[in-house]
Write a structure and sequence with these properties.
heterodimer; A: 316 residues; alpha/beta; Rossmann fold; five-stranded parallel sheet; 8 strands; B: mainly alpha; 2 domains; 19 helices; 69% helix; globular; Ac/AlaTfrase_AlgI/DltB (chain B); transferase (chain B)
Chain lengths: 316, 488
């Protein structure tokens, strides 16, 4: 038995080494079809890399926006600034509460934030959050929080990608520079991604029933506690989506009732004069014309115009 | 709790440590531990059915004793039929109630009589077919005085519920497993190492081969009406790999886990796709079930004695029952029937025992004749799998019809290849090639990795195993995928 346990121990050491070497080799040289459980893409279409570099430069913020692509494509910092609010958009693709929690723990540490505007997109409460995790792992400096997130997610793809990310960041610590314009998208300072062109042609969307993932709900509760602890005002906002998509949810009241119970909640669907065809470029996302209308309504309802345009530390 | 889940990866070492370190000097303690963890393992699926398992165990234990102690033959017969009736009654209710009621209504509907019937929303208790067959073999063996009943209830319960075999076999026999439960187990280094190798290979088969092949197989079987030709052939081939990787992978893990605890379970697979005829295939596929039917159905029916007509009849019965055992669907019955038809020439011409050894024994490559014999046998089994996998007989018929359509067009070959590679990529075909090569090299052993690399230096062998672990980590499906045979 002693020999068996000793050999198991040695095998574990050797196996870890071989695994790391193969992971690095396959991750670096193999095409994607040969590494289905490793997705490490720096500089994705959502500008996560640039955004996460930018947030490090921010100190005091009036408003911090978190959430999915509806956040970083839906809240324009220029409109907030014009109304006297320093805002940063920390949304990322398909960001679920698990990743929001990680980002808040990582970036609220040394920042003073007045209001946290949390874009609560129902679907993000019912998915596993793998896509968003991979996006953040590949585009941010990884620390123990990333490790804790991977442990919680118990997902082979997340684990492999994180291990690869640790190795890659050790060997290539230099951040990448993303082009400001990618196809129809333009990155705007403050974390926002603007798309001027594009209209939406309606197509059939199947009905979907929301089922809140208990892990996501637990992460959401933790976010609320964290925000309370830091005495930050919390606004929960359901940003506009196309009517077609909005109507495809069969049990929205169930979701809304749960969210409402957690804090100040605003659903902007139906509150802004938006047309699916004119103000969206797909079933989910507003184009710039839509964003302008939506943000005007947000400012009117939640952020009355003020004269102090910038917090002290960012003044030059 | 699945063998390929993180929770099992935590569960197994804990049980191993308790078994060999805490209870290592007490046989009774070890058996109680095995029983408790086996019940825990089962309760992780559905604790409600644990009571059914306990009841079934208690029934067979009690009737076994009652039969042995019965003063008259009629009492013995009474206890025997009580046990058989209740066991089959439970199995029939949970597994076949809806099938019988709807088939009955359909049948009398053919005569223009319409009956209203209701089906029940019955959940099939995991492993019921397996543990029922455990119990049945025990009771039948006592009835025919082949064994004496077990008087220790804990030992008998471990025989029925031992967690590695509880949910999908192998279907054990009291004569084989009970003595091992009663005997003091001593840790055997060599056996434990073999166990780990078998677990590793089983995980590779399930998580890399079966689960990835399922992608294309599911795509084809779910959309057979809109596909044709070679694409559907590929779907069936991928399903054949899926079901083999899945079930033999499960069996390897079960046997490997049992080895870690000092048990030797019945072998369930012996490289069936390297069979040269269907009779050989059935000696190598799901061996514990085939031998169960042979011993408890085929032989009592007369077996091969009593003339050719009786032999043919018995063969058909055994294959039809075997098909029906898999599930309450006509597709399984047709699958059984097809296999009976396949095997019939060898029964009639009495060539069913002509391939008792391993193909190309002691050689690296088969002869051309052997190669074609293996290929033809494989093609026949693939065709039968279509019925096994299809949702209904109609779906199977559409699958076969569309598969034949366009099979001879040249363009179909290119299209099918393109489609397969675009769906599964280049990696999976290479992995399948690697898998078949390893299985071929190890075909004369109990499992493929048993002696592979025995002559290699230890670090090289370990690097090979670590590479297998890497392949599992890189190609495993990220969602939990239950084993196919759990539904049976």
């Amino acid at each position: 038995m002693r020999l068996f346990l000793i050999k198991i121990g040695w095998f574990s050491v050797l196996c870890s080494g071989v695994y790391l070497m193969l992971l690095f080799a396959v991750g670096t040289f193999a095409p994607q079809s040969f590494k289905p459980n490793l997705k490490y893409t720096k500089g994705t279409y959502g500008y996560t890399n640039t955004r996460l570099q930018d947030i490090k430069k921010q100190s005091n913020l009036d408003v911090l926006v978190v959430g999915s692509s509806h956040a970083y494509r839906g809240f324009d910092p220029r409109i907030f600034k014009a109304n006297g609010y320093q805002m940063f958009n920390l949304g990322s693709s398909a960001q679920t509460p698990t990743q929001t929690l990680l980002l808040l723990k990582r970036y609220l540490k040394n920042k003073k934030v007045g209001t946290l505007l949390y874009e609560v997109y129902p679907t993000t409460f019912s998915i596993d959050g793998v896509e968003s995790s991979l996006d953040i792992i590949a585009n941010d400096q990884n620390d123990m929080l990333s490790f804790a997130m991977a442990c919680q997610m118990k997902h082979a793809k997340v684990a492999n990608t994180l291990v690869y990310a640790y190795m890659d960041q050790l060997l290539h610590p230099v951040a990448i520079t993303e082009p400001k314009h990618k196809k129809e998208d333009t990155y705007v300072e403050g974390g926002y991604v603007q798309r001027i062109q594009g209209t939406y042609t309606a197509n059939y969307l199947p009905k979907s029933t929301l089922k809140i993932d208990p892990k996501q709900w637990a992460a959401f509760q933790e976010i609320i506690q964290l925000v309370k602890q830091k005495e930050i005002r919390l606004l929960l906002v359901f940003a506009p989506v196309t009517k077609a998509l909005y109507q495809s949810y069969t049990n929205l009241p169930y979701f809304e009732n749960k969210i409402k119970a957690q804090g100040e909640y605003y659903n902007f669907n139906g509150r802004v004069a938006l047309e699916d065809h004119l103000h969206f470029y797909d079933s989910n996302h507003l184009n710039q014309a839509g964003v302008t209308l939506f943000n005007a309504k947000v400012m009117q309802q939640l952020f009355p115009p003020r004269t102090i345009a910038q917090p002290e530390k960012n003044k030059k | 709790m699945l063998f390929n889940s993180l929770s099992f990866a935590v569960f197994l070492p804990i049980v191993f440590v308790l078994y060999w370190f805490v209870f290592h000097k007490q046989l009774k303690g070890q058996n109680i531990l095995l029983l408790v963890v086996s019940y825990f393992f089962y309760a992780c699926w559905d604790y409600r059915f644990l009571f059914l398992l306990m009841f079934s165990t208690f029934l067979d234990y009690s009737t076994g004793l009652a039969m042995f102690d019965a003063k008259t033959k009629s009492w013995k017969r009474f206890w025997f039929w009580l046990s058989i009736g209740v066991n089959l009654g439970f199995l029939g209710f949970f597994k076949y109630y809806n099938f019988f009621i709807s088939s009955f209504a359909d049948a009398i509907g053919l005569w223009g009589i319409h009956v209203d019937y209701w089906t029940l929303n019955i959940i099939l208790p995991v492993g019921i077919s397996f543990y029922t067959f455990h119990g049945l073999s025990y009771v039948i063996d006592i009835y025919y005085d082949r064994i004496q009943p077990e008087r220790n209830f804990i030992d008998y319960s471990v025989f029925v519920s031992f967690f590695p075999l509880l949910v999908a076999g192998p279907i054990e026999r009291a004569t084989h497993l009970l003595p091992q439960i009663q005997r003091v187990r001593v840790f055997d280094y060599g056996n434990a190492v073999l166990g780990l190798r078998q677990i590793l290979w089983g995980l590779f088969k399930k998580m890399v081969i079966a689960d990835n092949c399922a992608t294309l197989a599911n795509l084809m079987f779910n959309d057979a009406a809109h596909q044709e030709g070679l694409k559907l052939v590929m779907g069936a081939v991928f399903f054949s790999l899926q079901i083999y990787g899945d079930f033999s992978g499960y069996s390897d893990i079960a046997l490997g886990v049992a080895r870690l605890f000092g048990f030797d379970l019945l072998r369930n697979f012996a490289f069936p796709y390297f069979s040269r005829d269907i009779a050989e295939f059935w000696r190598r596929w799901h061996i514990s079930l085939s031998t169960w039917f042979r011993d408890y159905l085929y032989i009592p029916l007369g077996g091969s004695k009593g003339g050719m007509a009786k032999k043919v009849r018995n063969t058909f019965i055994i294959f039809l029952v075997s098909g029906f055992w898999h599930g309450a669907n006509w597709t399984f019955i047709i699958w059984g029937l097809l296999n009976a038809l396949y095997i019939m020439p060898s029964i009639v011409f009495e060539t069913n025992r002509s391939n008792l050894n391993t193909v190309a024994q002691g050689k690296l490559f088969p002869t051309i004749r052997e190669f074609f014999a293996v290929l033809i046998t494989y093609c026949l089994t693939v065709f039968a799998w279509i019925f096994f996998r299809a949702e209904s007989v109609t779906a199977a018929w559409i699958y076969v019809k569309n598969m034949v359509k366009g099979l001879l067009s040249k363009a179909a070959y290119v299209q099918a290849l393109d489609f397969t590679l675009s769906t599964v990529g280049w990696a999976l075909p290479l992995l399948i090639l690697f898998f078949i090569s390893i299985e071929w090299l190890g075909r004369e052993q109990q499992f493929a990795l048993q002696r592979l690399g025995e002559r290699w230096k230890q670090p090289v062998r370990w690097v090979f195993y670590a590479t297998l672990i890497f392949l599992i980590g890189m190609f495993m499906k990220t969602e939990e995928t239950p084993f196919i045979y759990f539904q049976f």
